[in-house]
Amino acid sequence: MTATTGRTLAEKVWDAHVVRRGDGAEPDVLYIDLHLVHEVTSPQAFDGLRLAGRPVRRPDLTIATEDHNVPTTWTLDPSRKSADIEAIEDPVSRTQVSTLRKNCEEFGVRLHPMGDAEQGIVHVIGPQLGLTQPGMTVVCGDSHTSTHGAFGAMAFGIGTSEVEHVLATQTLPLRPFKTMAVNVTGKLRPGVTAKDIILAVIAKIGTGGGQGYVLEYRGEAIESLSMEARMTICNMSIEAGARAGMIAPDETTFEYLKGRPHAPQGADWDEAVAAWRALPTDDDAEFDTEVEINADELTPFVTWGTNPGQGLPLSESVPDPEQIADETARYSAEKALAYMDLKPGTPLREIAVDTVFLGSCTNGRIEDLRAAADVLAGHKVADGVRMLVVPGSMRVRKLAEEEGLDKVFLDAGAEWRQAGCSMCLGMNPDQLTPGERSASTSNRNFEGRQGKGGRTHLVSPLVAAATAVRGTLSSPEDLLAGSDQ
Amino acid sequence: MEPFTQHTGVGVPLRRSNVDTDQIIPAVYLKRVTRTGFEDGLFAAWRGDETFVLNQDAFRGGSVLVAGPDFGTGSSREHAVWALMNYGFRAVISSRFADIFRGNSGKQGLLAAECEQSDVEQLWKILENDPGTEVTVDLREKTVTAKDFTASFRIDDYTRWRLLEGLDDIALTLRYADDIEAFERSRPSYKPTTTPVAGA
């Protein structure tokens, strides 16, 4: 027993949602404040309800959108509110989307279909609608639900059986996670972003390092980040094996939320803010474990391998597996280099790409698009390179067009697409072909993730834009050096 | 869910670590709206390679997968569990499972048995030296046996109980419907609902 009585942010949110405390053998029953639904992981859950004759317990705490399957090339008939489902050419994808529409209709769940003004990637629309708020529990049948932890919410991905469980009961049987503090001290240098922080964290603790934990990102470098940058960090907690990542709510959080459609209003707002101010980890609370990262030392980070932990600063070279002492890690590196068709010792800056993908729930928000557009302005995408820009939501797309960002991308030779998950996982037609290499602002460089045989390097939006211009993995600094053609 | 007490079947050595759920079943295979038929997509990228373990006659009908550490990382897709079960697997043995995968397995009746890595290595040796060797996984005793080698495995007590009894999680939770209602009455009024509002 420790003498401390303080609690961490995660423990406070957990405790506030326990419907019934487990008795040791049984897990706790945890109440879920918000359930996000999409077309891929929900059909079997709705089917389960139908078979058991169960309703959705709280359709008013549930919201659905179409994101994983939807094409990004449709055009909207101005007389209609949403895009024609016939725009989905793949009949199996179309069935999945139409199944979601039927299920939402039957069970009374709010749905934002393809082309709707609020449609988009599920983890982009929750925050922008103001539905994601501090101190909440948020779940979705998608592992990147950890994104919402940026608001000081306990947010995590679940499987389809759990989706059905939440639909039926608005709760989940769970055991508390262990807590890990990720202390990011110092200040980020210009050109270094939230994406570089999280890639460095994953490289440090490994893809399994966070298993069983909820991560709390703390420290000066985190506090100075915008909400969107915080979302990028929490988004990839799962890539370190952690189901959830959290950041304490502060003025930045409240300012982001105020006035959003579903944010509290009037007296409710004051009451909510007072409650949110009590959420940060107490000074005398103890984490189960802590890790340190110094932001002063970070530079743009890219991955060279086939899991998100296989990353290095852009200034370094492809590692030599023979230099890796651990046998499993060495074997994994050998396999990765064979798949990626990379030779040890090759400077990362010399790796030429075929495609640049800017988008996803990791880096498909307006700030990401602005950052990339700033780098691209006045430049052209290199010959032989295609660049896809896929906004995270229709609202992000609209805002970007109001700011003229679409023109910057189009003038540079990039493609300006409709909103969705797109090439992050290649469930729609946006895929890599076998052997094709990408610099991608998404979250996973797994074998075949972006298309069978495709090779992925994970990068920040700044590196993505600079890479598009030079054709090889690059940072914006490389453009200033006048080395672009 | 069918109760799981003991299972004996051909063991399949998968000498890979970090087998993420995109490897178990790539996204393009996730489009069915049923829980069946996903065996087509199981390890799809690797099954094109004729040296892949499941393409070898001795292992084709395998039902106990013995994999490297960090099995099931990445995407939350329960389709990974369905694909393994649709193919015929009843148990996966690894020294470390990703949390979501382990949870999904427990809901579907696929046993995720966590062994020491040294025991996994020993099983790999046995299965590779004599392809087609059967492995017995005993959930009551929490042991895995191949030939004269036996190792113990870890699984949390609650999941073990549910698997042994074949219990439905939702029905278990609905026993506490009164607690859920009481909790709902105590929720603060500032908590959002998804009911449409102006501006969205």
Pick out its properties.
heterodimer, A: 485 residues, alpha/beta, five-stranded parallel β-sheet, 17 helices, 19 strands, B: 200 residues, seven-stranded mixed β-sheet, 7 strands, 32% helix
In terms of structural class, how would the helical and strand content of chain A be classed?
alpha/beta
**Portion in strands of chain B:** 15-25%
**Portion in beta strands of chain A:** 15-25%
Gross geometry of chain B: globular
Please describe the biggest sheet of chain A, giving its number of strands, its sense, and whether it closes into a barrel.
Answer: 5 strands, parallel
Residue windows where pLDDT falls under 50 for at least 5 positions of chain B: none
Count of distinct strands of chain B:
7
Description of the structure:
The complex is a heterodimer of chains A (485) and B (200). Chain A is α/β, with parallel strands linked by helices. In chain A, 32% of the residues lie in helices and 16% in strands. Chain A has 17 helices and 19 strands. In chain A, the strands form 5 sheets. A 5-stranded parallel sheet of chain A has the order 5-4-3-6-7, with helices on both faces. A 5-stranded parallel sheet of chain A has the order 17-16-15-18-19, covered by helices on one side. In chain A, strands 11-10-9-12 form a 4-stranded parallel sheet. In chain A, a hairpin with a 7-residue loop joins strand 13 (301-303) and strand 14 (311-313). Chain A is globular. The mean pLDDT of chain A is 96. With 200 residues, chain B is of the alpha/beta class. Chain B has a 7-stranded mixed sheet. The N and C termini of chain B lie far apart (41 Å). The mean pLDDT of chain B is 96.
